[in-house]
TrEMBL record:
Segments for region (Disordered): 1-31
Any single Gene Ontology cellular-component annotation: nucleus
Ranges of compositional bias, category Basic and acidic residues: 16-29
Listed GO biological process terms: regulation of DNA-templated transcription
Similarity field: Belongs to the FHY3/FAR1 family.
Residue ranges constituting the SWIM-type domain according to the UniProt record: 549-585
Annotated protein name in UniProt: Protein FAR1-RELATED SEQUENCE
GO molecular function, one term: zinc ion binding
Top-level taxon: Eukaryota
Chain's role: Putative transcription activator involved in regulating light control of development.
Compartment(s) where it occurs, according to its Swiss-Prot or TrEMBL record: Nucleus
Keywords annotated in UniProt: Metal-binding, Nucleus, Zinc, Zinc-finger
SMART domains: ZnF_PMZ
Amino acid sequence: MEELSLDGDQMAMGQTDEHVEERNGDKVVTEGQTGDIEKRKEFVTPAAGMEFESYDDAYNYYICYAKEAGFRVRVKNSWFKRNSKEKYGAVLCCSSQGFKRIKDVNRLRRETRTGCPAMLRMKLVDSKRWRILEVTLDHNHLLGTKAYKSTKNMNPGTKRKLQTNSNTETQTIKLYRALVVDAGGTSNSKANAREDRSCSDHPDHLNLRKGDTQAIYNYFCRMQLTNPNFFYVTDLNSGGRLKNVFWLDARCRAAVGYFNDTVFFDNTYLANKYEIPLVAFVGMNHHGQSVLLGCGLLAGETKESYVWLFNAWLTCASGQSPQTIITERCKILQSAVAEVFPNALHRFGLSHIMRKVPEKLGGLRNYDAIRKALVRAVYEALKPFDFEASWGFMIQHFGVSDHEWLRSLYEDRARWVPAYLKETNFTGMAAARPGETLNAFFDRYVHKQTPLKEFLDKYELALHKKHKEEVQADQESRSSIPTLKTRCSFEFQLSKVFTKEIFKKFQLEVEEMYSCFSTTQVHVDGAIVIFLVKERVLAEGNRREIRDYEVLYNRAAAEVRCICSCFNFYGYLCRHALSVLNFNEVEEIPWTYILSRWRKDYKRTCIPDQLSNCNDATDQIQRTSHLYRSALQVVEEGVTSVDHYKAALQAIEESVHRIHDIEAVML
């Protein structure tokens, strides 16, 4: 990375002063007045995903940004490792964040805090770099040079101290200028990598670096040679330039046939303006692991691009639409999903919404109390009525009825609040409990400035690692015998059926049946009986409280449904439903509630819906896809040992001979 000089032509900034003062235990950085404000270079806005070599680099960058924007910075929180005292996390905020403590209100100093929400949260990551995790840019007060204290009235000692820091200031600006280059800034330097980019403010084509198009072409050619079932499609604009791209390899294509019942569409990198405008279709396999179902690069967040991408994926999936599709909360996405997947249930990712709470509500006076009330309303409400009552209390009690974000969330509540989604099948991707999240598939492989060429290498590395984890989980599930923790027949029944990881989750529900201390029949309507199950749960502050769960049971239809909707959310029965079955002396779980997608032998026995519904299977594309997927399963299991290899090879040779026999008969 080239270091840029700071002469007057490149950076039209006046002399800047800085000093640090302690206030209420927070470190406040007070900037001096800058010269020639109109000519100043505007800094790149902080964004989640930016990385820095050290804490000081990240800290100085935010100070420079604050200086340009016209506000002061305070270190709100810092976290250190217990043994080494090495710093591993920090929150920087606007100096106007928060409010005075009650005991300080009567002091003579004028109140300057306004509860400003502007902040930056960063963390030391595995690469030993500091990564920005969360940013709030909005302020609730005026910005500008008046936010800075003039140095005219400073004593000579302070001024001399500031002058000694001039080298640090220069390094900060140099760091920032390098960051501008990485982010595709607007430097006029010929050495600037910015000239290698085909940049446009309009999403008419992909914003690629020099050589990226060739890299994509080379990658696709190589994959088609080594991966016969590799699929890709490109979208060109009117000028013949690359606009959108979609691809998936053989394993991903096979996974679409197995695990496309619930799909998470992840546009995190595109929405957060990463170097690569990457989007991904993600599912969950029979071990509860995330599995890639397709990738794309989009020119922009437009309905046109999303519709094109969804149609490309649908073509690859042989027209088989997912039952449920999860996306971020976005009107453009909502419209595109409705057009391409009209029969799918479109839901907003709950964890994505809750992740935005600090950014959207952090500036409110009673933020901590509001956040707790919101969490209770969202996660603890079992029925829509309960949610609306808790929400209404929160809005009125804290006086936030005019808050635009909360208002819009309430309008969309039927797409993200668990209490409204009881009939939605999420098959393990609901993230409906506190702390559960839908993580980006390439989270450890892509950062803000990852170039496309590097990503294409990391793409194969990521898929290889995920495949290795799945193969290992398959072997463990087939070879290991789970240790039973109870004498419950349900536990023994599913220990022979479910994969190891899914059985562990179900086993926890069996163990927690003992926290359900009362099962009472409360209503009878013919064959349908409503039971009330009482459970002791661990609440806030490590205190125990009792909660009631309604469970519907129909012995004739072998139906059992709990109000907590664990089966629809996670794919297995909950402790409450199991308690009702046990109460009614049912020895085995009805097969309706044993999803085949969690079985150890799922891939061996699964038949694609599009083929099972087609008597003559005349569609050559579907036949090719199904045969390749079946053959891939033979290959993957055949390489595990010499004996497996010999058996697989013999089976293939026998299959070829049988096909030749059919040809001979037809002739």
